[in-house]
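protien #1 (seq + structre)
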Amino acid sequence: MKSRTCRVEGIQIVQRRAVTAMLAAATLLVTAGCSSGDGEESGGGGSTSPGSSEPGASAPASGPSAEETPPAKGSVKVVRTVTEGLKSPWGLAPLPEGGLLVSSRDEGTITRVDEKTGKKTELGSVPGVAPAGEGGLMGLALSPSYASDHMVYAYFTSDSDNRIVRMLYDAKKPAGDQLGAPDTVFRGIPKGTNHNGGRIAFGPDKMLYVGTGETYVTELAQDKKSTGGKILRLTPEGEPAPGNPFNSPVYSYGHRNVQGLAWDSKQRLFASEFGQDTWDELNHIKPGDNYGWPEAEGQSDDSKYHNPIDQWSTDEASPSGIAYAEGSIWMAGLRGKRLWRIPLNGTKESADPEAFLEGDYGRLRTVVSAGGNKLWLMTSETDGRGTPESGDDKILELEVT
């Protein structure tokens, strides 16, 4: 059984808890005694579809009615361990030709994992990565034109800022030399020891969405001229995307530290966000909206702030990656050491969340759709805050309902 770890002012507190296969949770949970203010643990071209004001929104994808009204109770089955022995893994990008690209935050490398055999092949190092604290090589995303350009996008911390680069991936070259020289797409995102954000994803509109952090400079989150504490929306070339609400890269603001981005079958954008000492959040993102930080953490009575659709005490979640499958958002918890299911209902934006795999695999960093009812789930025990055991870190294949 994995131990449960929090850090308060440099003191590590370990609490042993019995592992449960499933934990049903109400939307509001009691605030835990572990303070989370020490870091992330704290806790297409702008077309608009009828009835939607969101840039890039498109008509709902057709699919089974189960995806529109998910079952009240879900399930998670761990099919297998895909691979083991990863070092500080962070980003995960499935390749259309097969294989999974994994970034190592602290090593500054990208590795290809054969999802059938588990074999790992290092593509190469990303020049300019300066890992420290929660910074380093983080999110990965494939170009929307990957089939023709074979470009891989990466978000990383440099000596001066957080930035996004793209690199040519050439599998025909020798291992260790398969990444081309990085082309900087966007730079100048504030950096810090903590709260560097780091998740990137291309949306249904083929625009690049970026989750950033406020680097402990809380006023950046409300400053619409800063790219810290925001969700950004960019063209693949790094320009402000057409239709952005402020004629800038900023898509939404008032965020503390965004590390999860995913779209549902209706093309609605959701994002997970670390709270400080009280509430972590899952938000439905609308262009131009203010999500409250640092004036609000979790639900607020002030109508100028967009409230989260769900919130958790910081020791139950500390969420990083999210994915959409089977009518639900699936959210990986670091300090919480569990996988949350948040059903999305038609008339109600969210039903009561459920927790799975509590403590079974330790800290969970990234979850990605593997198609249909399957997910890839990646652990995060070797990032300096976990308690690594034999085989850490791992990628798991899951079946979910």
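ok now protien #2
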Amino acid sequence: MVTGTGLVERAGELRELARRRAADAEEQRRLTPDVVAGVLGGGFARHFVPVGFGGVEGTFREFADAVAVVAEGCAAAAWCASVASSLARVAACLPVEGQADVWGGGADAFVVGSLSPLGKAVPAPGGWRVSGSWAYISGVDYSDWVVVCALLPDRTGARLFALPRGAYAVKDTWTGSGMRGTGSNTVIVDDVFVPESRSVDRQRLSDGHTVPIQAVNGLSCAPAALGAARGALRLWTRDTAQRLARGAGRVGGPGPALSTYEAVLTRSSGEIDAAALLLERAAHVADRGARITEAETARNVRDYALSTELLVAAVNRMFATAGTSGQSVENPLQRAWRDVNSIATHIALNFDPAAVLFASRPFALEAA
């Protein structure tokens, strides 16, 4: 693992805390306050914040490694840690005056949000008036700021807007079967004035900022699935070893044969390793910044989706041979199974759009 800011090492400490609090987070449908404090104290929020505002401008490789480490203990905690980093990187697109507002109280401000253009914005003297609702805003109960996206009149474009806590309401709507601890509730903004300095054209994200958003979007999601799958492998191996010690796997006995367990271990661990290698390369490419080519962007998008498919296959295979005990609510394996399958539904990890993007250039060249 790449180290630089110490984020990965601190993530190891957060992993153990998050593991102990995972059941509580599930029950409460949001992280516990001490885990949120660990996310912020561990440096996730400041990881992509400009140095001039107290951040460290860290690498994508270190970020992805750290998120995966936390997810070995609790995927929901890792997801919110990823949000804290990723949305701060989005906020860094704001004009300098807006950045000063967001990080005036320190670089560990917890920024959450949505890039989906689900709101409406109309010009007003000195800025904009914004309204709308945005669902699935992970970590919002603990947020200091939210960045939301709204359409301009006559759908002439879309802009991002940063609002401080108090300028938006939170509606408790999160009831997902997986990633229950993320507290992904709904943000509601009712005709709030946002100054021009806290707004930016959404196209800025695609045009590059420091790196095109499409080249890194999946990297905010897939590492959490990777860590959760690694955690599932550890749990499955431990439980299976105990099952074998009690006589499972014997010829003529109940349940799968020993060879079945051996095949599951070998194939699933290989798929997890393969996914990790794909994400490692994607993060390395992301760290090249604005020098990323269109072909590399398409490959990154493909690899986010493909690595997630590998992780889902690995976890599903393990869970299918975990027996009835694996489905017990007391067994964290079932949580990892639900979490990985839930993460895989994120739009940034959808394989078909990735395939369209990846195949468009080669097929276009062949047809020319």
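The chain has a mean pLDDT of 93.
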